[in-house]
Each structure stands twice: as structure tokens, then as C-alpha cells.
Amino acid sequence: MSVSIALDRPATAAVSRTAPAQELVRLHAVSKRYSPQLTVMDQMSLTMQDDERLVIIGPSGSGKSSLLRVLMGLEGIQGGQISFQGREYIDGQAGGARKLDPKLQRQIGMVFQHYTLFPHLSVLGNLILAPTKVHGWSREKATERARQLLARLGLENKLQAWPSQLSGGQKQRVAIARALMLEPKLMLFDEVTSALDPEMVIEVQNVMMQLAEQKMAMIIVTHDMHFARHIATRVVFCANGRIVEQGPPEQLFTRPREARTREFLEKVV
Ligand code: ADP
Ligand code: MG
Fold it and tell me: What is the model's pTM?
């Protein structure tokens, strides 16, 4: 593999940036309900700069996946607003009706826990599908970008492979490459290593660390607190649809302020 970033070396935040950090995402009082009884985001507000890597932690069912799916535009919201790069992206005030700016949505990539590759398409076919069919790229341009990305992720010899011929770790790396095709400004990762064997966890985490070194803004949901500590610039602990506490990984993991956070960390670490 061409990627080998040691996990015991913490990713330093923004070492060699030329431009000053800018606001990337702003959630203002966002509410998300699946039913009147089930509120998974309760007037949640959160801002993120473009040089940050947020890790979201919290109990199962606390709304972490919902938050990412909302940001990706896959779920509507019932209240509040979300801006992206300072522009209005999603507006939830119209009684649940969704107002979303697709140009901004295109700047966000997402990778899920379970490989979502299309089984009937080759690796190359998976990567170029949306760019060519939805975004009007030429096949040549998309193929060239796919080649570059796969090489970066150590998968240059898998271009023509079928998903069924790949290991779990390779599938997740292809899913990451596919999410990177349109050159997103923000990447969302929802428990992308939870279903993998330990040796494959590392290869996928190495790719994420590589993206971190390249200053990709990311929001990561993970139960792997060791990885969280290494990749995060900020950790956000959510419970019951609210942000209980957030801070730099050093502080949150070693000196949590809230009893609720301590209780959670004692269970998972
Ligand atoms: P987490 O990722 O933190 O485990 P989720 O966002 O997946 O939490 O889910 C939060 C709550 O919302 C859970 O109780 C879950 O069962 C419920 N939920 C998630 N998706 C849906 C859906 N599409 N319809 C109804 N309820 C849902
Ligand atoms: Mg989840």
C-alpha cells in the first residue's frame, strides 16, 4: 500500500496553511424529528471552520448518523437553518418541506458504514457514474480523476475489479475515492470502519489520516476513541439530540467537564 501514516503520530492541525481558516458549516437551531415522539436533533447549533476535523461521539441512537445524513441533504429538517461556506444551504423552517441548494450539496462527500458500492459496476464504473451521469463530466475527465484518486489510495491496480473481488478495507477505500471524485470541500464519515476486521480498520484509517494531512475538512462518527484522539481537532459529544460538550481531544478525553460525558467515556474507553 502506498499509504502509511503512523497512527501514533497525532495529526497536527493546520501546520502549513496559506489562507486563513474560514467558516465552512454553520447549523443554527436545527431540529430533526422522525415523529412527534422522536426528536433526534433538538435545536442543535454548531459551527465548523474549514481547517477542522470534527469527531462526533455519543451513545447509540443519539442521532449521530441523522446529523450526517441531514448535512448530506439526505434527510429533511423540521426547524433551523444550515449554511455552507457562508451561504444558505438548507432551510428547515417551512414545516418540514426541504429547501436545499444542490450546488452546495455537491461540495460534500459521504462514506457510510456498509459498503454502498454498486455491485454490478466495476470500481471505475462506481467512481465515474455520478460525475458523468449527473454532473456532465466527460468519460475521459472522470476516468482520469478516478485513476489519480485510486493511485493516491493505493488501489491503482483495482480499476477494473468488481466490488465482490475486493476486501472490506478495499471496498471502503473505493467508497472514499468515489466520495472524493467531485472534489468535495467537506467529507462525512459514518462509522466507516465498524464492520471491518482489525487489519482492515488500519488501512482505512490511514487513508483518512492522509486526507487529514492534506487538510480535508471532515466530520467523523466513530466509536474508536483511539482514532478519534488522533484525527480530531475537536470532539463533539452528543446525547439526546443535543451537544453535551465539545473540545479539543486532549481536554475532552482526559478532563471532560460534564458528568454525562465522563459516564459515556468510562463505558467505551
Ligand atoms: P446514531 O447514529 O447515534 O446511533 P441515529 O441517527 O441512527 O443515531 O438514530 C437516532 C434515532 O432515530 C434512533 O432512535 C433511531 O432508531 C431513529 N431513526 C433513525 N433513522 C430513522 C428513520 N429513518 N425513521 C425513523 N426513525 C429513525
Ligand atoms: Mg449511527
Answer: 0.92
Helix (H, G, I), strand (E, B) or coil at 151: helix
Of 77, 84, 79, residue with least CA distance to 106? 84
Cα(141) to centroid of ligand 2, in Å?
A: 35
Residue 42's identity, in one-letter code, is D
Q: How far apart are CA 150 and CA 28, in angstroms?
A: 37
Nearest Cα to Cα of residue 200 among 268, 154, 151, 152: 154
Residues 191-245 pLDDT 10s: 999 999 998 999 999 999 999 999 999 999 999 999 999 999 999 999 999 999 9
**For the segment 59-108, what is each residue's pLDDT rounded down to a tens digit?**
999 999 999 999 999 999 999 999 999 999 999 865 555 689 999 999 99
| Ligand 1 pocket, residue 74 CB under 6 Å | no
Rg (CA), the chain: 18
**Closest residue by CA, ligand 1 atom 22:** 34
**Using a 6 Å cutoff on CB, does residue 56 contact ligand 1?**
no
> Could you tell me which of 187, 225, 221 has the C-alpha nearest to residue 207?
187
Q: DSSP string of 26-93?
A: EEEEEEEEEETTEEEEEEEEEEEETT-EEEEE--TTSSHHHHHHHHTTSS--SEEEEEETTEEEEE-T
Q: What ipTM was reported for this prediction?
A: 0.98
What would the pLDDT profile of 94-151 be if each residue is shown by its tens digit?
Answer: 555 568 999 999 999 999 998 789 999 999 999 999 999 999 999 999 999 999 999 9
Counting ligand 1 atoms within 8 A of each CB, the residue from 30, 33, 37, 40 with the most, and so the one to mutate, is 40
Alpha-carbon distance 163 to 119, whole Å? 6
